[in-house]
């Protein structure tokens, strides 16, 4: 599992409970702790894990605070687990995906992941490679107007240097036809979301 191979683990609020369930010791615990049980916090304190407490009324979510901590520490790759969880409110899930566009993430590989889905941001003149299975769903959503020169390889519906416009659904629900695919973007920003088949 990717979490077990991480060099540094930051648990954001209820993420502490997930770490305890998985037997993973976080290197840092952050949040306002409005959604984590006192038992989990008590365990973290007993074990002496570093805890950074933030006020409930703040200008950033616990997820953003955790991501910024990782970036401040100089991470070259950050994987955020649970940010796409279906239990999250719609506004939180959408905001988590927009975190990929923070200026501080420039030059850093940031992924949002859960059991079946992963999301990343593709910037101008970048190429992203996806690895999955035939039939996995790939959706491309422009975050600029337009996301220009979108070219794909290994997807059922090929795009050859076309623009994708905000508000259009043209980039949604494509499919992998090979175990891997590539997406290239000439200009703008493109959110790439892949959903694996649940039968696997």
Describe the protein.
The model has no long low-confidence stretch (mean pLDDT 92). It contains 4 helices and 13 strands. β4 (77-81), α4 and β5 (109-113) form a beta-alpha-beta unit. The protein has helices at residues 15-22, 38-47, 62-72, 90-98; strands at residues 10-12, 28-31, 51-53, 77-81, 109-113, 117-123, 126-131, 137-142, 147-153, 160-164, 174-175, 180-187, 189-195. It is elongated, with a radius of gyration of 18 Å. Strands 4-5-6-13-8-11 form a 6-stranded mixed beta sheet, covered by helices on one side. A 4-stranded antiparallel beta sheet has the order 7-12-9-10, with no helix packed on it. A 3-stranded parallel beta sheet has the order 1-2-3. It is of the alpha+beta class.
How are the secondary structure elements laid out?
Elements (H helix, E strand, L loop, with lengths): L9 E3 L2 H8 L5 E4 L6 H10 L3 E3 L8 H11 L4 E5 L8 H9 L10 E5 L3 E7 L2 E6 L5 E6 L4 E7 L6 E5 L9 E2 L4 E8 L1 E7 L5
Parallel strand pairs: 1-2, 2-3, 4-5
Antiparallel strand pairs: 5-6, 6-13, 7-12, 8-11, 8-13, 9-10, 9-12
């Amino acid at each position: 599992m990717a979490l077990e191979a991480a060099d540094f683990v930051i648990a954001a609020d209820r993420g502490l409970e997930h770490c305890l369930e998985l037997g993973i010791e976080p290197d840092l615990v952050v949040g306002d702790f409005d959604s984590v049980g006192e038992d989990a916090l008590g365990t973290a304190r007993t074990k002496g894990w570093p805890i950074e407490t933030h006020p409930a009324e703040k200008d950033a979510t616990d997820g953003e605070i955790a991501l910024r901590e990782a970036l401040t520490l100089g991470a070259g790759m950050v994987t955020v687990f649970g940010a796409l969880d279906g239990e999250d409110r719609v506004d939180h899930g959408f905001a988590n995906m927009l975190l990929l566009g923070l200026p501080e993430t420039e030059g850093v590989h940031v992924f949002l992941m859960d059991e079946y889905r992963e999301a990343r941001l593709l910037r101008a003149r970048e190429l992203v490679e996806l690895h999955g299975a035939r039939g996995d769903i790939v959706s491309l959503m422009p975050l600029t107007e337009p996301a220009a020169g979108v070219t794909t390889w290994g997807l059922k519906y090929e795009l050859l240097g076309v623009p994708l416009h905000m508000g259009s659904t043209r980039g949604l629900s494509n499919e992998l036809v090979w175990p891997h695919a590539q997406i290239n973007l000439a200009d703008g920003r493109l959110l790439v979301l892949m959903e694996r088949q649940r039968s696997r």
